[in-house]
Amino acid sequence: MGIAALLSTALTSGAAHAAAPAALKAEAAADVDAQTKNLQVMIDKVFSFAEPGFQEVRTSAYLADILEKNGFTVTRGVAGIPTAFTATWGEGGPLIAMGSDIDGLLGVSQTPGVATIKPMVPSAPGHGEGHNSGLPMMIAAAIAAKQVMIAHKIPGRLMIWPGVAEELLGTKAFYVREGMFKGVDANIFAHVNSGFGTGYGDLGLNGMVSVEYTFHGKTAHAAAMPWDGRSALDGVELMDVAWNFRREHLPLSQRSHYVISNGGGQPNVVPDTASVWYYFRDSNFAAVRNLYETGNQIAQGAAMQTGTTVTRQVLGYAAPNFGNKPIAEAAYANIKAVGMPKWSADDQAFASAIQKANGFKPAPLPTEITPLSTPETRKGGMGASDDIGDVMWTVPTITIGYPSNVPNVIFHHATAAMAMATPIAHKGAVVGAKAAAMTVLDLMTTPKLLADAKDYFQNVQLKTQTYDPVIVASDKPAIHRNETTMAQLRPFMEKFYYDSDKYPTYLDQLGIKYPNLDTGAAK
Ligand SMILES: [Zn+2]
């Protein structure tokens, strides 16, 4: 959208809200447009790094360096997490935080710009959700907001932060516990989507705890002297059986699932160590705590039955998500003013090829923004979780969904990576960055908006529940997760890192013509 059009939309639609002057917002939007190339490079680079939770070493260093070069003060390794950082800038005024996730997922390596499943490195991690786009988008937004604040001498401070290990629900409860959001007045978060929108109230994302139970037994020759052994795997199996019997008597709202993360070495050795990793989910803090306590009891019972002992480690936690109404309404006005990207026929053709090749319901890239999601318009919960919830119960927060992915792809799956280093991802991040920058300016320049946001947080949100995570002082972030996997796979993945000095885009480096419309049908 041109500045003139943006101005007129903002002027006609913003009347109901306390908002920054439309001219300031138009400047921020123009500044984001000027960063289009940098944004594409950041998105493509992070896609090529494809680092899973806690191992976002290159991603984190690369993005923190960019912020440093742009005048932000970077503190690395915050909250005892090596790949976490904060990047701050500004003086006086409100402190507005801006965050998005940066981690990939195990086993979903995917060649971008290709509509069929085609790993770059077999069994390697990949951006099978699109977390490669979120922080680049926020960085572009922060730089734009900062430029406008400097030009117009607007007091205020920014704090950019990465969601490390979100796919493990691994860090945000620890960020909160370690005081990362102390003094923050409001927080804008962003998550990749196929639509462009935001919402408020209980967003229907479950709370959850991720916990690994490790049983300790006694090893023995499984054939010659089995009576000498106590099988840790027996403990794991009985725990799982008991959990599945108990499931009948749990609230219907719960969702729980597990994997045996260590089942022993080989059958003729009685395993002295075995582990099972559970996710317990439900819609509120108390229900999550109840599931966790039930799991702990069942683990104890299984240990008693098998003559083993059991220990547990909390690997992650996520609070239910709750969006702040005044900020969501302000952001929504900005989303409306910015509008959807202008999709090309090539973008639409590639999106359609992905859907066709993978048997998904056809749906074009949307050309209209998503209606504001409210408690009145929302239908039921979504089952999944996002640890931004912990921040949402600490400071007034919203999540902006920006349109960098294709409708009907499966998250946590190679299909959700296919478009994430193509013009679809790049264009979606440009509009997302504009809306985020404009919302930052609203928060910086209109004390009433901040006051309303705090009032809603205190007097509406905190009246429904109180933040009550199950993590305790002795729980630590699981920073060694994925270390061994990456030690094995990184040498193979490095060959695919994007060299932006040599190639205009990552697709150019990989020799992929856009749009590649091969749906594999002839094979
Ligand atoms: Zn995500």
Structure description:
With 523 residues, the protein is an alpha/beta fold. Helices cover 39% and strands 16% of the residues. The protein has 15 helices and 12 strands. Strands 1-2-4-3-5-12 form a 6-stranded mixed β-sheet. α3 (36-49) runs antiparallel to α5, α3 crosses α12 and α5 (134-151) crosses α12. The longest helix is centred in the last third of the chain and has 23 residues, at 423-445. The relative contact order is 0.20. Residues 1-16 have low confidence and may be disordered. It binds zinc ion. Zinc ion is lined by residues 101, 129, 131, 166, 191.
Span between termini: 42 Å
Tell me the overall shape.
Answer: globular
User: How many beta-strand elements?
Assistant: 12
What's the mean pLDDT score? Answer: 95
Largest pleated sheet:
6 strands, mixed
Rg of Cα set: 24 Å
H and E string: HHHHEEEHEHEEEHEEHEEHHHEHHHH
Helix-and-strand structural type: alpha/beta
Beta-strand percentage range: 15-25%
Spell out which ligands are present.
zinc ion
What is the number of helices? Answer: 15
Helix coverage percent: 25-40%
Question: Strand sequence of the main sheet, in spatial order?
Answer: 1-2-4-3-5-12
- Which regions have little confidence, pLDDT < 50, spanning 5+ residues? 1-16
Short description:
The protein has 523 residues and is α/β, with parallel strands linked by helices.
Name a few traits of the molecule.
523 residues; alpha/beta; six-stranded mixed sheet; 15 helices; 12 strands; binds zinc ion
Lay out the secondary structure:
Elements: H1 3-13, H2 22-34, H3 36-49, H4 57-69, E1 73-76, E2 85-91, E3 95-101, H5 134-151, E4 156-163, H6 172-177, E5 186-193, E6 201-202, E7 207-216, H7 232-246, E8 255-262, E9 273-282, H8 285-306, E10 309-318, E11 322-323, H9 325-338, H10 345-357, H11 388-392, E12 397-403, H12 423-445, H13 447-464, H14 483-494, H15 506-510
Helix pairs in contact: 1-2, 1-9, 2-5, 2-12, 3-5, 3-12, 5-12, 7-8, 9-12, 9-13
The structure holds zinc ion.
